[in-house]
From TrEMBL:
UniProt KW Repeat keyword: no
Protein name: Glycosyltransferase RgtA/B/C/D-like domain-containing protein
Keyword match Signal: no
Superkingdom in the source lineage: Bacteria
Biological source species: Bradyrhizobium jicamae
Spans traversing the lipid bilayer: 56-73, 79-103, 115-134, 140-161, 168-186, 192-209, 216-236, 286-305, 317-341, 353-372
Length: 526
């Protein structure tokens, strides 16, 4: 777990560590969970100099901070990675429970439902892409999936609830879950909209009570209030740009992520998304498997719904169809609309995790069984219950076999192996330097909002000699130290012209500390 995503340019794992550590050191309430681009240091003593990254709400990173507070341990990269791995397991558990309850509602029996639930867990836990993402990349993309998984599980439980009290409790839990998700990733807003549409459709179809306009507007106030809180955070957090500049930046960021600006434009999205990303993260022809099985399943469920007469049967079939649409349309729509973001952050394809694991390996066999059961009920010579149960077991067993089969790969490391010494080297810098140390290196560099600064928890400025160091510290106020960072096997070069006051050698990096320099900035506060 002592590793960082060294094969990607994204900085999210390291940033999660940095922001949780900043809140730990400086006080989360004092900063209003602001997300600076660099940690506090003598060369960046103010929020204006540190800068703020506010494109996403900070909820995903608050989780890391709260975990650190709960366990009373300082935030670190290993902690971030353990949280990510734990979430992976909980997502699989929530998905399996959702499928178990959905299958039980459609009268498949406990054993058959259990096999289907087990089958769903395999592609979630053992597909190459999710293993890679949930072990190395903590991001808003991965963090929001636990919220969506719980939300979807609660949706299934709602359709299966028998008393009004149970429905109220489930609804309260469901709305709390999605409200928290609003502060993690924008996907939650898309999911919420389609959830409202599904509830309208359920009322129209007579499956649930029709939703009244008053209820609709009260539910609509949830995303509105959450987004208002996000805007207030952008406007009021220390180092914020101000309302006008912040809104302009947000609009431009959204347009950029839709590939509608000249900033980091991308081409070739369709091939990369529908072929390369699905196949790289899941299995060959993964998108075709999802698309074809989804279309077949929808067709079977529509046919079954039209034939159903009992209210409980119509409700269970509608719940299955609604569930299918909720795990596909919001997730894919979000990835396609913000397609520049999806293209750059390839692990965004983990949002297809539910569709890939559930539709072909659970919802399709459920829909086949429902249609077989209906046909058997209308037959003049119906099959005995044991034969019908055998059909269900055969479908579930086949699905389980297929679900396991798609998780075999030649290599489970799609980006190569992690060198944990890279993490430890940068971590050594942070552990052996303090606020008054200005760290420079002729080889290394840790810029704001980078993998390196998030891991080291310290800016590292590129400088090849003391003349270049003078330029770095030109605006430093007060006494400070210069620390030269030299990776294993490198030489000090021109820095050897002076004798350091202290030398720290961790075996991975040497730190030469030149102590007690005096700041020369002319605009220092008195």
């Amino acid at each position: 777990m002592g590793q960082i995503p060294v094969f990607d340019a994204d900085v999210t794992t390291a940033a999660a560590n940095m922001w949780a550590r900043i809140w730990w050191d400086e006080g989360a309430r004092n900063l209003l969970f602001a997300t600076p681009r660099a940690p506090l240091s003598i060369e960046t003593p103010t929020m204006e100099l540190r800068g703020i990254y506010d494109s996403w709400p900070p909820g995903a990173f608050v989780i890391v901070y709260l975990a650190a507070m709960f366990f009373s341990i300082q935030p670190s990269i290993p902690l971030v990675n353990w949280i990510n791995v734990t979430m992976h397991g909980l997502i699989a558990l929530a998905a399996a429970l959702a499928v178990f309850n959905l299958a039980s509602m459609n009268r498949l029996g406990r054993v058959t439902s259990g096999l289907l639930a087990l089958g769903v867990a395999f592609p979630i836990l053992l597909s190459r892409g999710p293993i890679y993402a949930f072990s190395q990349i903590y991001d808003v993309v991965t963090a929001v999936l636990i919220f969506t998984a719980v939300f979807l599980l609660l949706e299934v439980l709602y359709y299966g609830a028998r008393s009004q009290r149970d429905k109220w409790v489930i609804t309260a839990l469901q709305l709390t879950t999605i409200y928290l998700a609003f502060f993690v990733d924008w996907l939650s807003y898309t999911l919420f909209v389609f959830w409202l549409i599904s509830r309208f459709a359920a009322g129209y179809a007579g499956v649930l009570e029709p939703m009244k306009l008053r209820r609709f507007f009260s539910l609509l106030s949830l995303p509105v209030s959450a987004f208002s809180i996000f805007l207030a955070w952008r406007f009021l957090a220390p180092g914020a740009q101000g309302a006008g500049a912040s809104i302009k930046h947000l609009i431009r960021k959204i347009l950029q992520r839709m590939n509608l600006t000249d900033e980091s434009p991308i081409t070739g999205f369709a091939k990369a998304f529908f072929e390369e990303m699905h196949e790289d993260y899941y299995s060959p022809h993964a998108f075709s498997l999802i698309a074809v099985s989804a279309l077949v399943t929808v067709g079977l469920l529509i046919a079954a719904f039209r034939r159903a007469r009992a209210p409980s049967e119509r409700r269970s079939i509608f719940a299955t169809m609604s569930f299918l649409l909720l795990i596909t349309i919001p997730f894919y729509l979000h990835m396609i609309v913000l397609y520049q973001h999806t293209f750059i952050h390839r692990w965004a394809i983990t949002k297809a995790l539910f569709a890939y694991s559930m539709i072909p390996f659970a919802l399709l066999p459920i829909s086949v069984f429902v249609l077989v059961r209906q046909s058997n009920g209308q037959s003049k010579v119906p099959l005995p219950r044991s034969a019908l149960a055998a059909v269900g077991l055969l479908l579930a067993g086949s699905s389980l076999f297929d679900a396991v089969s798609v998780t075999f790969y030649d290599s489970y490391a799609p980006r190569g192996r992690i060198d944990s010494n890279a993490y430890r080297m940068w971590d050594d810098i942070g552990r052996n330097t303090a606020y008054k140390d200005v760290v420079v290196s002729p080889i290394l560099e840790a810029n704001p909002i980078s993998v390196q600064v998030g891991t080291a928890y310290k800016l590292v400025h590129h400088a090849g000699n003391f003349a270049e160091v003078d330029k770095v510290v030109a605006r430093v106020c007060g006494d400070f130290n210069v620390v030269v960072a030299l990776p294993k096997g490198s030489e000090p070069g021109e820095f050897a012209s002076r004798e350091p006051a202290h030398v720290i050698d961790t075996g991975r990096i040497r730190l030469l500390r030149f102590a007690s320099y005096q700041g020369k900035a002319v605009d220092c506060p008195r």
